[in-house]
Amino acid sequence: PEVGLPLTSQQYDRLTAEVLVDRLIARHHHHLALTICDFLKLSKQKVLTHWACEKLKSPSVRDMPDKQLRDIIREKLKPCGTMSYTAIALIAYDGGRGRKRLSTMLLDYEPHAADQVKLLLSMNENELALQKAVNSMDSDLVFLVLLSTEARLRNNQSQAKKQEFFHMVYNHPDATALL
Length: 179
Known about the structure:
Strand content: under 5%
Radius of gyration: 21 Å
Number of helices: 12
């Protein structure tokens, strides 16, 4: 492919391979960046994360079902092994204007429970955030979910919302034990 990035060996030595890969990513030459990463034994995570984020922004996937899009992204990122999906899920969510379901589906692959929980809380997915926090067996995360949800309830005086909170906590005995 034509890249149009003239570079002398002296410039390359000063720039480093990582900067060259960053420049290729910025120009959306993901395949070439991946090839260079393979050749130089560099991490592909940054390239693949950028590719996935750009894929989500693409008009060609606007009508694609969430599950199919998740599978495409997962298949492409699978060779990278364990990597963070938080940035990709955040792009999918797009501040509430995007695809919330796809975002939560992508977060299932996120290896760090704290990142999962924080993004789920920002998406107002309190029940799922509590489930992930309890599954991580991190009491600090469970407290974070409980306190964050309770703080939202203080702003919302609805009796139904308060009952929903207690029902959510009651369904997770480990969370109940912390209260």
